């Protein structure tokens, strides 16, 4: 994801059911809804080759 930067500088892990895990500077990691602002700022999606497709 890209937040206040000219290059991607943030990552999240999609947990399913519209939730992602991420960590903002100065905070503990948290599960948060994926959509809106986060989906607009997503620049790359990377999937492990062993991940199930669904």
Quick synopsis:
With about 55 residues, this protein is mostly beta strands. The chain has 1 helix and 3 strands; from the N terminus they run E-E-E-H. Helices cover about 10% and strands about 25% of the residues.
Please give the share of residues in helix: under 10%
Question: Structural class, judged by helices and strands?
Answer: mainly beta
Main sheet record: 3 strands, antiparallel
Strand order of the largest sheet: 1-2-3
Tally the helices.
1
Describe the structure.
With 54 residues, the chain is mostly beta strands. It has one helix and three strands; from the N terminus they run βββα. The chain has a three-stranded antiparallel beta sheet, with no helix packed on it. The mean pLDDT is 91.
Features:
globular; 54 residues; 24% strand; 3 strands; three-stranded antiparallel sheet; mainly beta
């Amino acid at each position: 994801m890209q937040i206040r930067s000219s290059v991607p500088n943030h990552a999240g892990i999609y947990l399913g059911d519209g939730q992602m895990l991420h960590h903002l500077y100065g905070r503990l990691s948290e599960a948060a809804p994926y959509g809106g602002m986060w989906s607009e700022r997503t620049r790359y999606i990377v999937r492990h080759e062993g991940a199930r497709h669904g």
